[in-house]
Amino acid sequence: MTLTGNMLIGQQAVTGSQQALRAIDPATDHPLEPAYPGATGAHVEQACALAWAAFDSYRETPLTVRAHFLETIADEIESLGDELIERAVAETGLPRPRILGERGRTCQQLRTFARVVRAGDWLGVRVDTALAQRQPLPRPDLRQRQVPLGPVAVFGASNFPLAFSVAGGDSASALAAGCPVIVKAHGAHPGTSELVGRAVADAVKKCGLPEGVFSLLFGAGNDVGIALVSDPRIKAVGFTGSRNGGIALCKAAQARPEPIPVFAEMSSINPVLLFPAALDARGEALAQGFVASLTQGAGQFCTNPGLVIARQGPGLERFIKTAAGLVERITAQTMLTPGIFNAYETGVGLLLEHANAQLTAAGLRGESPNQCQAHLFVTQAQDFLADAALQAEIFGAASLIVQCADDDETRQVIEHLEGQLTATLHLDDADLEHARALLPVLERKAGRLLVNGWPTGVEVSDAMVHGGPFPATSDSRTTSVGTAAILRFLRPVCYQDFPDSLLPAALKHGNPLQLRRLLDGQGEAQDNV
Ligand code: NAP
Protein backbone atom coordinates (compact mmCIF):
# COMPACT_ATOMS: atom_id res chain seq x y z
CA MET A 1 0.00 0.00 0.00
CA THR A 2 1.49 3.32 -1.01
CA LEU A 3 1.27 6.25 1.36
CA THR A 4 -0.45 9.16 -0.34
CA GLY A 5 -0.25 12.09 2.09
CA ASN A 6 -4.03 12.37 1.88
CA MET A 7 -6.56 13.01 4.59
CA LEU A 8 -9.82 11.08 4.77
CA ILE A 9 -13.05 13.00 4.78
CA GLY A 10 -15.57 10.22 5.06
CA GLN A 11 -14.75 7.84 2.18
CA GLN A 12 -12.97 10.55 0.15
CA ALA A 13 -9.17 10.77 0.07
CA VAL A 14 -8.50 14.51 0.06
CA THR A 15 -5.24 16.40 -0.35
CA GLY A 16 -4.88 19.28 2.07
CA SER A 17 -3.76 22.70 0.92
CA GLN A 18 -2.35 24.22 4.09
CA GLN A 19 1.24 23.98 5.33
CA ALA A 20 2.46 20.39 5.03
CA LEU A 21 3.89 18.35 7.85
CA ARG A 22 6.33 15.52 7.37
CA ALA A 23 7.30 12.78 9.80
CA ILE A 24 10.87 12.79 11.05
CA ASP A 25 12.74 9.60 11.83
CA PRO A 26 13.89 10.52 15.34
CA ALA A 27 16.76 8.03 15.16
CA THR A 28 18.38 9.97 12.30
CA ASP A 29 16.58 13.32 12.23
CA HIS A 30 15.80 12.64 8.54
CA PRO A 31 12.39 13.62 7.18
CA LEU A 32 10.23 10.82 5.81
CA GLU A 33 8.09 10.88 2.66
CA PRO A 34 5.38 11.77 1.86
CA ALA A 35 4.40 15.27 2.90
CA TYR A 36 1.02 15.69 4.58
CA PRO A 37 -0.55 19.03 3.58
CA GLY A 38 -2.86 20.36 6.27
CA ALA A 39 -6.62 20.78 6.28
CA THR A 40 -8.31 24.10 5.55
CA GLY A 41 -11.29 25.44 7.45
CA ALA A 42 -13.45 24.09 4.61
CA HIS A 43 -12.08 20.57 5.16
CA VAL A 44 -12.88 20.75 8.88
CA GLU A 45 -16.35 22.01 7.99
CA GLN A 46 -16.87 19.16 5.50
CA ALA A 47 -15.78 16.47 7.98
CA CYS A 48 -18.03 17.91 10.69
CA ALA A 49 -21.01 18.13 8.32
CA LEU A 50 -20.55 14.46 7.34
CA ALA A 51 -20.16 13.39 10.98
CA TRP A 52 -23.32 15.23 11.93
CA ALA A 53 -25.23 13.72 9.01
CA ALA A 54 -24.09 10.24 10.11
CA PHE A 55 -24.87 10.66 13.79
CA ASP A 56 -28.58 9.87 14.02
CA SER A 57 -28.37 6.69 11.97
CA TYR A 58 -25.04 5.49 13.44
CA ARG A 59 -26.21 5.92 17.01
CA GLU A 60 -29.20 3.65 16.42
CA THR A 61 -27.26 0.86 14.71
CA PRO A 62 -28.12 -2.50 16.27
CA LEU A 63 -25.59 -3.44 18.94
CA THR A 64 -24.45 -6.45 16.93
CA VAL A 65 -23.73 -4.28 13.88
CA ARG A 66 -21.73 -1.75 15.88
CA ALA A 67 -19.78 -4.52 17.63
CA HIS A 68 -19.02 -6.14 14.27
CA PHE A 69 -17.78 -2.76 12.99
CA LEU A 70 -15.26 -2.51 15.86
CA GLU A 71 -14.08 -6.06 15.19
CA THR A 72 -13.76 -5.28 11.48
CA ILE A 73 -11.52 -2.29 12.27
CA ALA A 74 -9.27 -4.65 14.27
CA ASP A 75 -9.20 -7.15 11.38
CA GLU A 76 -8.37 -4.40 8.88
CA ILE A 77 -5.52 -3.10 11.07
CA GLU A 78 -4.08 -6.60 11.34
CA SER A 79 -4.32 -7.07 7.60
CA LEU A 80 -2.05 -4.04 7.08
CA GLY A 81 0.72 -6.44 8.12
CA ASP A 82 4.34 -5.43 8.26
CA GLU A 83 3.92 -2.15 6.42
CA LEU A 84 2.20 -0.66 9.44
CA ILE A 85 4.83 -1.99 11.83
CA GLU A 86 7.75 -0.71 9.75
CA ARG A 87 6.25 2.73 9.28
CA ALA A 88 5.42 3.10 12.98
CA VAL A 89 8.96 2.07 13.94
CA ALA A 90 10.44 4.58 11.47
CA GLU A 91 8.21 7.43 12.64
CA THR A 92 8.56 6.92 16.39
CA GLY A 93 11.96 5.33 17.03
CA LEU A 94 10.14 2.76 19.18
CA PRO A 95 11.52 -0.77 18.91
CA ARG A 96 9.70 -3.27 16.73
CA PRO A 97 8.60 -5.55 19.62
CA ARG A 98 6.99 -2.57 21.34
CA ILE A 99 5.07 -1.63 18.17
CA LEU A 100 4.01 -5.25 17.64
CA GLY A 101 2.75 -5.35 21.23
CA GLU A 102 0.96 -2.06 20.77
CA ARG A 103 -0.81 -3.30 17.65
CA GLY A 104 -1.98 -6.32 19.66
CA ARG A 105 -3.23 -4.06 22.43
CA THR A 106 -5.02 -1.77 19.95
CA CYS A 107 -6.88 -4.64 18.29
CA GLN A 108 -7.64 -6.26 21.63
CA GLN A 109 -9.03 -2.92 22.83
CA LEU A 110 -11.34 -2.71 19.80
CA ARG A 111 -12.51 -6.29 20.35
CA THR A 112 -13.06 -5.63 24.05
CA PHE A 113 -15.29 -2.66 23.21
CA ALA A 114 -17.16 -4.90 20.75
CA ARG A 115 -17.88 -7.25 23.68
CA VAL A 116 -19.01 -4.27 25.78
CA VAL A 117 -21.31 -2.98 23.03
CA ARG A 118 -22.94 -6.41 22.62
CA ALA A 119 -23.56 -6.83 26.36
CA GLY A 120 -25.32 -3.44 26.44
CA ASP A 121 -24.79 -2.70 30.16
CA TRP A 122 -23.44 0.73 29.15
CA LEU A 123 -26.98 1.65 28.10
CA GLY A 124 -27.61 1.91 31.86
CA VAL A 125 -31.32 1.16 31.54
CA ARG A 126 -33.48 2.08 34.54
CA VAL A 127 -37.22 1.51 34.61
CA ASP A 128 -39.67 2.95 37.16
CA THR A 129 -43.03 1.43 36.25
CA ALA A 130 -46.18 3.53 36.60
CA LEU A 131 -47.94 3.55 39.99
CA ALA A 132 -51.40 4.64 38.96
CA GLN A 133 -52.90 4.22 42.44
CA ARG A 134 -50.14 5.99 44.37
CA GLN A 135 -51.41 8.70 46.76
CA PRO A 136 -51.45 11.62 46.83
CA LEU A 137 -50.24 11.55 43.18
CA PRO A 138 -49.80 8.70 40.74
CA ARG A 139 -46.28 7.99 39.42
CA PRO A 140 -45.78 8.06 35.65
CA ASP A 141 -43.92 5.32 33.77
CA LEU A 142 -40.25 6.46 33.60
CA ARG A 143 -37.55 4.82 31.53
CA GLN A 144 -33.93 5.96 31.24
CA ARG A 145 -31.18 5.00 28.85
CA GLN A 146 -27.82 6.47 27.90
CA VAL A 147 -27.47 8.06 24.46
CA PRO A 148 -24.27 9.16 22.72
CA LEU A 149 -23.23 12.83 22.90
CA GLY A 150 -22.58 13.35 19.19
CA PRO A 151 -19.49 13.60 16.97
CA VAL A 152 -16.22 13.44 18.95
CA ALA A 153 -12.90 15.11 18.06
CA VAL A 154 -9.98 12.83 18.95
CA PHE A 155 -6.38 14.06 19.24
CA GLY A 156 -3.92 11.20 18.67
CA ALA A 157 -1.14 10.89 21.26
CA SER A 158 2.52 10.94 20.25
CA ASN A 159 3.57 8.25 22.73
CA PHE A 160 1.07 5.57 21.65
CA PRO A 161 1.06 5.76 17.83
CA LEU A 162 -1.45 2.90 17.66
CA ALA A 163 -3.11 2.31 21.04
CA PHE A 164 -3.87 6.01 21.69
CA SER A 165 -3.99 7.36 18.18
CA VAL A 166 -6.29 7.03 15.17
CA ALA A 167 -8.04 3.79 16.23
CA GLY A 168 -6.89 3.88 19.85
CA GLY A 169 -8.76 4.00 23.12
CA ASP A 170 -10.49 7.36 22.62
CA SER A 171 -11.74 6.48 19.12
CA ALA A 172 -12.75 2.94 20.11
CA SER A 173 -14.75 4.09 23.13
CA ALA A 174 -16.44 6.95 21.23
CA LEU A 175 -17.36 4.68 18.30
CA ALA A 176 -18.61 2.06 20.78
CA ALA A 177 -20.85 4.68 22.39
CA GLY A 178 -22.37 5.53 18.99
CA CYS A 179 -20.44 8.74 18.30
CA PRO A 180 -18.90 9.48 14.89
CA VAL A 181 -15.20 10.33 15.25
CA ILE A 182 -12.99 12.93 13.58
CA VAL A 183 -9.32 12.36 14.34
CA LYS A 184 -6.77 15.14 14.28
CA ALA A 185 -3.66 13.05 13.52
CA HIS A 186 -0.55 13.67 15.60
CA GLY A 187 2.12 15.27 13.43
CA ALA A 188 4.76 12.84 14.72
CA HIS A 189 3.31 9.78 12.95
CA PRO A 190 1.25 10.83 9.91
CA GLY A 191 2.08 7.74 7.82
CA THR A 192 0.99 5.40 10.62
CA SER A 193 -2.14 7.54 10.95
CA GLU A 194 -2.90 7.34 7.24
CA LEU A 195 -2.57 3.54 7.21
CA VAL A 196 -4.78 3.05 10.26
CA GLY A 197 -7.21 5.71 9.00
CA ARG A 198 -7.64 3.80 5.75
CA ALA A 199 -8.25 0.61 7.73
CA VAL A 200 -11.04 2.34 9.69
CA ALA A 201 -12.56 3.84 6.53
CA ASP A 202 -12.50 0.39 4.87
CA ALA A 203 -14.31 -1.05 7.90
CA VAL A 204 -16.95 1.71 7.64
CA LYS A 205 -17.53 0.75 4.01
CA LYS A 206 -17.52 -3.04 4.59
CA CYS A 207 -20.08 -2.65 7.39
CA GLY A 208 -22.34 -0.45 5.28
CA LEU A 209 -22.22 2.46 7.72
CA PRO A 210 -22.66 6.12 6.79
CA GLU A 211 -19.34 7.54 5.60
CA GLY A 212 -19.30 10.39 8.13
CA VAL A 213 -18.74 7.92 10.98
CA PHE A 214 -15.00 8.48 10.57
CA SER A 215 -12.72 11.18 9.17
CA LEU A 216 -8.99 11.85 9.55
CA LEU A 217 -7.47 15.33 9.30
CA PHE A 218 -3.87 16.56 9.26
CA GLY A 219 -2.64 19.98 10.30
CA ALA A 220 0.68 21.55 11.21
CA GLY A 221 0.08 23.96 14.07
CA ASN A 222 -2.98 24.50 16.19
CA ASP A 223 -5.53 25.85 13.71
CA VAL A 224 -7.09 22.54 12.66
CA GLY A 225 -7.46 21.36 16.25
CA ILE A 226 -9.02 24.61 17.44
CA ALA A 227 -11.37 24.76 14.41
CA LEU A 228 -12.47 21.21 15.14
CA VAL A 229 -13.11 21.81 18.84
CA SER A 230 -14.96 25.04 18.01
CA ASP A 231 -17.30 23.50 15.44
CA PRO A 232 -20.86 23.39 16.82
CA ARG A 233 -21.38 19.84 15.54
CA ILE A 234 -18.56 18.47 17.70
CA LYS A 235 -19.99 17.46 21.08
CA ALA A 236 -16.95 16.14 22.99
CA VAL A 237 -13.15 15.91 22.78
CA GLY A 238 -10.66 13.15 23.64
CA PHE A 239 -7.01 14.18 24.06
CA THR A 240 -3.71 12.80 25.38
CA GLY A 241 -0.69 15.07 25.41
CA SER A 242 0.82 18.09 27.11
CA ARG A 243 -0.70 20.14 29.89
CA ASN A 244 -0.56 23.27 27.74
CA GLY A 245 -2.25 21.56 24.80
CA GLY A 246 -4.99 20.06 26.99
CA ILE A 247 -5.67 23.37 28.70
CA ALA A 248 -5.81 25.20 25.34
CA LEU A 249 -8.43 22.74 24.08
CA CYS A 250 -10.44 23.01 27.33
CA LYS A 251 -10.46 26.81 26.95
CA ALA A 252 -11.58 26.58 23.31
CA ALA A 253 -14.35 24.15 24.30
CA GLN A 254 -15.53 26.40 27.12
CA ALA A 255 -15.47 29.52 24.94
CA ARG A 256 -18.03 28.08 22.51
CA PRO A 257 -21.62 29.35 22.64
CA GLU A 258 -22.39 25.72 23.59
CA PRO A 259 -19.50 24.51 25.78
CA ILE A 260 -18.60 20.82 25.49
CA PRO A 261 -16.69 18.34 27.65
CA VAL A 262 -12.98 17.79 26.99
CA PHE A 263 -11.50 14.56 28.29
CA ALA A 264 -7.82 15.50 28.34
CA GLU A 265 -5.16 13.26 29.87
CA MET A 266 -2.21 15.57 30.43
CA SER A 267 0.41 15.48 33.13
CA SER A 268 1.29 13.21 36.04
CA ILE A 269 4.46 12.41 37.97
CA ASN A 270 3.05 9.25 39.58
CA PRO A 271 4.46 9.32 43.14
CA VAL A 272 5.94 6.11 44.54
CA LEU A 273 5.91 5.81 48.34
CA LEU A 274 8.52 3.54 49.85
CA PHE A 275 7.55 2.59 53.41
CA PRO A 276 10.26 1.87 56.00
CA ALA A 277 9.78 -1.87 56.56
CA ALA A 278 9.64 -2.56 52.82
CA LEU A 279 12.78 -0.47 52.28
CA ASP A 280 14.62 -2.28 55.07
CA ALA A 281 13.59 -5.71 53.79
CA ARG A 282 14.18 -5.25 50.06
CA GLY A 283 15.67 -1.86 49.22
CA GLU A 284 17.87 -3.28 46.44
CA ALA A 285 15.02 -5.18 44.79
CA LEU A 286 12.83 -2.09 44.96
CA ALA A 287 15.59 -0.08 43.27
CA GLN A 288 15.76 -2.62 40.45
CA GLY A 289 12.01 -2.52 39.87
CA PHE A 290 11.98 1.26 40.06
CA VAL A 291 14.78 1.79 37.51
CA ALA A 292 13.20 -0.71 35.11
CA SER A 293 9.87 1.15 35.30
CA LEU A 294 11.52 4.59 35.07
CA THR A 295 13.57 3.83 31.97
CA GLN A 296 11.13 1.60 30.06
CA GLY A 297 10.44 3.13 26.63
CA ALA A 298 12.77 6.08 27.45
CA GLY A 299 10.31 6.98 30.21
CA GLN A 300 7.74 8.17 27.68
CA PHE A 301 4.71 6.93 29.56
CA CYS A 302 2.12 9.04 31.30
CA THR A 303 2.45 6.62 34.24
CA ASN A 304 6.23 6.96 34.48
CA PRO A 305 7.37 7.09 38.15
CA GLY A 306 8.72 10.66 38.20
CA LEU A 307 8.66 11.04 42.01
CA VAL A 308 9.78 8.82 44.90
CA ILE A 309 8.83 9.72 48.49
CA ALA A 310 10.45 8.00 51.47
CA ARG A 311 11.63 8.52 55.05
CA GLN A 312 15.36 9.03 55.54
CA GLY A 313 17.31 6.10 56.91
CA PRO A 314 19.69 3.30 55.97
CA GLY A 315 16.97 1.56 53.90
CA LEU A 316 16.51 4.63 51.70
CA GLU A 317 20.27 5.11 51.42
CA ARG A 318 20.63 1.55 50.13
CA PHE A 319 17.77 2.13 47.67
CA ILE A 320 19.37 5.34 46.33
CA LYS A 321 22.82 3.75 46.02
CA THR A 322 21.48 0.74 44.12
CA ALA A 323 19.20 2.83 41.89
CA ALA A 324 22.05 5.25 41.08
CA GLY A 325 24.35 2.35 40.12
CA LEU A 326 21.68 0.96 37.82
CA VAL A 327 20.82 4.31 36.21
CA GLU A 328 24.49 4.90 35.40
CA ARG A 329 24.48 1.75 33.25
CA ILE A 330 21.26 2.57 31.35
CA THR A 331 21.92 3.11 27.66
CA ALA A 332 20.29 6.12 26.03
CA GLN A 333 17.14 5.45 24.02
CA THR A 334 15.71 7.37 21.09
CA MET A 335 12.80 9.61 22.04
CA LEU A 336 9.64 10.00 19.98
CA THR A 337 10.26 13.41 18.45
CA PRO A 338 12.92 16.11 18.47
CA GLY A 339 10.35 18.31 20.28
CA ILE A 340 9.87 15.77 23.08
CA PHE A 341 13.66 15.31 23.35
CA ASN A 342 14.16 19.08 23.62
CA ALA A 343 11.41 19.36 26.25
CA TYR A 344 13.14 16.57 28.23
CA GLU A 345 16.51 18.29 28.01
CA THR A 346 14.96 21.57 29.16
CA GLY A 347 13.24 19.91 32.13
CA VAL A 348 16.40 18.07 33.19
CA GLY A 349 18.41 21.28 32.68
CA LEU A 350 16.14 23.14 35.12
CA LEU A 351 16.72 20.46 37.77
CA LEU A 352 20.48 20.43 37.13
CA GLU A 353 20.55 24.17 37.81
CA HIS A 354 18.16 23.99 40.77
CA ALA A 355 19.91 24.87 44.02
CA ASN A 356 17.94 22.27 45.99
CA ALA A 357 17.94 19.29 43.64
CA GLN A 358 21.08 17.15 43.64
CA LEU A 359 21.96 14.98 40.67
CA THR A 360 22.50 11.45 42.00
CA ALA A 361 23.05 9.59 38.75
CA ALA A 362 22.96 10.04 35.00
CA GLY A 363 22.70 7.26 32.43
CA LEU A 364 24.98 6.75 29.44
CA ARG A 365 24.98 9.54 26.89
CA GLY A 366 23.53 8.81 23.45
CA GLU A 367 25.57 8.84 20.24
CA SER A 368 22.59 9.41 17.93
CA PRO A 369 20.08 12.26 17.76
CA ASN A 370 17.22 12.63 20.26
CA GLN A 371 18.45 10.07 22.76
CA CYS A 372 17.20 10.23 26.30
CA GLN A 373 19.90 10.08 28.97
CA ALA A 374 18.29 8.85 32.21
CA HIS A 375 18.59 11.10 35.29
CA LEU A 376 17.99 10.61 39.00
CA PHE A 377 17.79 13.53 41.43
CA VAL A 378 17.37 13.85 45.21
CA THR A 379 15.80 16.65 47.23
CA GLN A 380 14.62 17.25 50.80
CA ALA A 381 10.95 17.41 51.76
CA GLN A 382 11.10 21.04 52.91
CA ASP A 383 12.72 22.10 49.62
CA PHE A 384 10.10 20.20 47.64
CA LEU A 385 7.34 21.88 49.62
CA ALA A 386 8.88 25.30 49.03
CA ASP A 387 9.02 25.16 45.22
CA ALA A 388 6.10 24.02 43.05
CA ALA A 389 8.47 23.79 40.05
CA LEU A 390 9.93 20.61 41.58
CA GLN A 391 6.73 18.74 40.77
CA ALA A 392 6.59 19.67 37.08
CA GLU A 393 6.37 16.63 34.79
CA ILE A 394 9.59 15.84 32.92
CA PHE A 395 8.37 13.56 30.14
CA GLY A 396 11.14 10.95 29.87
CA ALA A 397 13.40 8.87 32.12
CA ALA A 398 13.98 11.39 34.93
CA SER A 399 12.85 11.06 38.53
CA LEU A 400 13.19 12.97 41.78
CA ILE A 401 13.55 11.28 45.19
CA VAL A 402 12.09 13.32 48.08
CA GLN A 403 13.65 12.50 51.46
CA CYS A 404 11.34 13.05 54.42
CA ALA A 405 12.46 13.45 58.04
CA ASP A 406 9.42 11.73 59.54
CA ASP A 407 5.85 10.55 58.87
CA ASP A 408 4.48 14.04 59.29
CA GLU A 409 6.69 15.37 56.52
CA THR A 410 5.70 12.45 54.30
CA ARG A 411 2.06 13.39 54.76
CA GLN A 412 2.80 17.07 54.02
CA VAL A 413 4.56 16.13 50.78
CA ILE A 414 1.63 14.00 49.67
CA GLU A 415 -0.88 16.69 50.60
CA HIS A 416 1.15 19.14 48.53
CA LEU A 417 0.97 17.06 45.34
CA GLU A 418 -1.14 17.96 42.33
CA GLY A 419 -3.61 15.41 40.92
CA GLN A 420 -2.04 12.19 39.63
CA LEU A 421 -2.92 9.24 37.41
CA THR A 422 -1.36 6.83 39.89
CA ALA A 423 0.12 6.56 43.38
CA THR A 424 2.18 3.50 44.28
CA LEU A 425 2.81 2.11 47.77
CA HIS A 426 5.62 -0.31 48.52
CA LEU A 427 4.93 -1.80 51.92
CA ASP A 428 5.29 -4.77 54.23
CA ASP A 429 2.98 -5.86 57.06
CA ALA A 430 4.67 -3.51 59.51
CA ASP A 431 3.85 -0.57 57.20
CA LEU A 432 0.13 -1.28 56.91
CA GLU A 433 -1.13 1.13 59.58
CA HIS A 434 1.00 3.96 58.23
CA ALA A 435 -0.29 3.27 54.72
CA ARG A 436 -3.90 3.09 55.94
CA ALA A 437 -3.55 6.54 57.50
CA LEU A 438 -2.41 7.99 54.18
CA LEU A 439 -5.10 6.37 52.03
CA PRO A 440 -7.70 9.17 52.35
CA VAL A 441 -5.11 11.67 51.09
CA LEU A 442 -4.00 9.39 48.27
CA GLU A 443 -7.58 8.76 47.16
CA ARG A 444 -8.03 12.52 46.86
CA LYS A 445 -4.91 12.78 44.72
CA ALA A 446 -4.90 9.86 42.28
CA GLY A 447 -7.07 7.73 39.99
CA ARG A 448 -5.26 4.42 40.56
CA LEU A 449 -3.57 3.25 43.78
CA LEU A 450 -1.12 0.34 43.51
CA VAL A 451 0.51 -1.81 46.17
CA ASN A 452 3.91 -3.43 45.60
CA GLY A 453 3.89 -2.95 41.83
CA TRP A 454 4.97 -0.30 39.33
CA PRO A 455 2.67 2.18 37.62
CA THR A 456 3.82 1.66 34.02
CA GLY A 457 1.74 -0.92 32.16
CA VAL A 458 -1.96 -0.09 32.15
CA GLU A 459 -4.37 -3.02 31.82
CA VAL A 460 -7.29 -2.51 29.43
CA SER A 461 -10.07 -3.98 31.56
CA ASP A 462 -13.40 -3.28 33.21
CA ALA A 463 -12.04 -2.04 36.56
CA MET A 464 -9.14 0.08 35.25
CA VAL A 465 -9.03 3.80 36.00
CA HIS A 466 -6.60 5.84 33.93
CA GLY A 467 -7.64 9.24 35.16
CA GLY A 468 -7.30 11.47 38.17
CA PRO A 469 -7.70 15.03 39.44
CA PHE A 470 -6.24 17.96 37.47
CA PRO A 471 -3.66 18.18 35.94
CA ALA A 472 -3.61 14.40 35.45
CA THR A 473 -6.82 14.92 33.53
CA SER A 474 -9.32 17.69 32.87
CA ASP A 475 -12.17 15.57 34.30
CA SER A 476 -11.44 13.28 37.23
CA ARG A 477 -14.81 11.52 37.02
CA THR A 478 -13.75 9.32 34.15
CA THR A 479 -11.09 7.04 32.73
CA SER A 480 -9.45 7.06 29.31
CA VAL A 481 -8.32 3.40 29.48
CA GLY A 482 -10.58 0.42 30.08
CA THR A 483 -14.17 -0.27 29.21
CA ALA A 484 -15.56 2.46 31.50
CA ALA A 485 -14.06 4.95 28.99
CA ILE A 486 -17.28 4.55 26.99
CA LEU A 487 -19.18 6.43 29.73
CA ARG A 488 -17.39 9.68 28.78
CA PHE A 489 -19.36 9.93 25.58
CA LEU A 490 -22.86 9.24 26.88
CA ARG A 491 -25.65 11.18 28.58
CA PRO A 492 -28.96 10.02 30.08
CA VAL A 493 -32.39 10.57 28.52
CA CYS A 494 -35.62 9.76 30.35
CA TYR A 495 -38.80 8.70 28.49
CA GLN A 496 -41.99 9.41 30.41
CA ASP A 497 -45.27 7.58 29.70
CA PHE A 498 -44.17 6.47 26.22
CA PRO A 499 -46.33 3.90 24.45
CA ASP A 500 -44.33 0.68 24.03
CA SER A 501 -44.29 1.00 20.26
CA LEU A 502 -42.52 4.37 20.49
CA LEU A 503 -39.88 3.28 23.03
CA PRO A 504 -36.34 2.44 21.90
CA ALA A 505 -35.71 -1.33 21.95
CA ALA A 506 -33.57 -1.09 25.10
CA LEU A 507 -36.52 0.31 27.06
CA LYS A 508 -39.43 -1.75 25.74
CA HIS A 509 -41.59 -3.64 28.24
CA GLY A 510 -40.60 -7.03 26.87
CA ASN A 511 -36.84 -6.29 27.13
CA PRO A 512 -36.20 -7.65 23.61
CA LEU A 513 -32.46 -6.97 23.88
CA GLN A 514 -32.32 -9.09 27.07
CA LEU A 515 -30.42 -6.32 28.89
CA ARG A 516 -29.61 -6.29 32.60
CA ARG A 517 -31.96 -3.48 33.64
CA LEU A 518 -32.81 -1.81 36.95
CA LEU A 519 -36.56 -2.41 37.34
CA ASP A 520 -38.29 -0.59 40.21
CA GLY A 521 -35.02 -0.45 42.13
CA GLN A 522 -34.11 -4.13 41.63
CA GLY A 523 -32.27 -6.18 39.04
CA GLU A 524 -34.86 -7.27 36.48
CA ALA A 525 -35.60 -11.00 36.53
CA GLN A 526 -35.53 -12.28 32.96
CA ASP A 527 -38.92 -14.02 33.35
CA ASN A 528 -40.49 -10.92 34.85
CA VAL A 529 -40.42 -8.53 31.91
P1 NAP B 1 1.09 18.13 22.52
O1 NAP B 1 2.05 19.19 22.18
O2 NAP B 1 0.14 18.43 23.62
O3 NAP B 1 0.26 17.78 21.20
C1 NAP B 1 -0.77 16.80 21.19
C2 NAP B 1 -1.79 17.17 20.11
O4 NAP B 1 -2.51 18.33 20.53
C3 NAP B 1 -1.18 17.51 18.77
O5 NAP B 1 -2.05 17.07 17.75
C4 NAP B 1 -1.15 19.02 18.78
O6 NAP B 1 -1.25 19.57 17.49
C5 NAP B 1 -2.38 19.37 19.58
N1 NAP B 1 -2.21 20.63 20.29
C6 NAP B 1 -1.26 20.93 21.20
N2 NAP B 1 -1.42 22.17 21.65
C7 NAP B 1 -2.50 22.67 21.01
C8 NAP B 1 -3.16 23.94 21.05
N3 NAP B 1 -2.72 24.94 21.82
N4 NAP B 1 -4.23 24.11 20.26
C9 NAP B 1 -4.67 23.11 19.45
N5 NAP B 1 -4.07 21.92 19.37
C10 NAP B 1 -3.00 21.70 20.14
O7 NAP B 1 1.81 16.78 22.91
P2 NAP B 1 3.04 16.03 22.22
O8 NAP B 1 3.40 16.67 20.94
O9 NAP B 1 2.65 14.62 22.15
O10 NAP B 1 4.22 16.12 23.25
C11 NAP B 1 4.65 17.32 23.83
C12 NAP B 1 4.76 17.15 25.33
O11 NAP B 1 3.52 16.64 25.83
C13 NAP B 1 5.76 16.13 25.81
O12 NAP B 1 7.05 16.63 25.89
C14 NAP B 1 5.20 15.76 27.16
O13 NAP B 1 5.60 16.70 28.11
C15 NAP B 1 3.72 15.85 26.97
N6 NAP B 1 3.08 14.53 26.78
C16 NAP B 1 2.48 13.97 27.84
C17 NAP B 1 1.86 12.75 27.69
C18 NAP B 1 1.17 12.12 28.83
O14 NAP B 1 0.61 11.06 28.64
N7 NAP B 1 1.15 12.71 30.01
C19 NAP B 1 1.85 12.09 26.47
C20 NAP B 1 2.47 12.69 25.38
C21 NAP B 1 3.07 13.92 25.56
P3 NAP B 1 0.02 20.19 16.77
O15 NAP B 1 1.12 19.19 16.93
O16 NAP B 1 -0.43 20.36 15.37
O17 NAP B 1 0.30 21.46 17.49
Automatic annotation (TrEMBL):
Pfam families xrefs: Aldedh
Gene3D superfamilies registered for this protein in UniProt:
Aldehyde Dehydrogenase, Chain A, domain 1, Aldehyde Dehydrogenase, Chain A, domain 2
Sorted keywords for this record are: Oxidoreductase
- For the Aldehyde dehydrogenase domain, which residue ranges apply? 16-467
Question: Which PANTHER family does the entry mention?
Answer: ALDEHYDE DEHYDROGENASE-RELATED, SUCCINATE-SEMIALDEHYDE DEHYDROGENASE, MITOCHONDRIAL
Task: Provide the protein name.
Answer: Aldehyde dehydrogenase (NADP(+))
